[in-house]
Every structure is written in structure tokens, then in C-alpha cells.
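dumping this here before i forget
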Amino acid sequence: ADNDKASLTACQEILDANLPALKALTGFVSVNRVVCGGCLDFKIIVTLDAENYGAWETAAFAPEAQILEALAAVDGVSSVETQTFTFMTM
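structure:
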């Protein structure tokens, strides 16, 4: 499947190239990557503190657009989506 998971490797390279910009975001808390080798899912979760989220939203979540564009261009990637949610430790 997927030429030995080549698309997942390419997605990881895109994430690696953008990690410095993500980590430099004001209010940065974390970046998590979720991968399912079986279904070939690749997810990037960026967490900011609540106080700085609105400013990031106003800035169109930069560098989100260029990351999404790069991911969509990867051979084997069939869908690129975004989702906003909150985390709460219970």
C-alpha cells in the first residue's frame, strides 16, 4: 500500500520543515503528530494557550495554508482537512 508508505514519509518531511514556525507561534504549547500506518492517516495537532488563540485565528492560522497546500500536493494524499477542537485533561 502507498509505495511503502511514501506519502506518510513525505508528510513527515513537510511537518519537519514547518516545525520551527509552529513552535515560534505566540502562545505555543505543543505540536503532536498522529499516524496510522494501517489506514495511512497523518494528523498534525497544534495547541496554543487560550489567550493567544484569537490572534492566531485572526492571522488565518499561519502557517496553516502553506502546510495544507504542501500536504495536498503529496502523491497518495487523498484528503486534507482542518478541524478546531479543545483538549481538557480529565
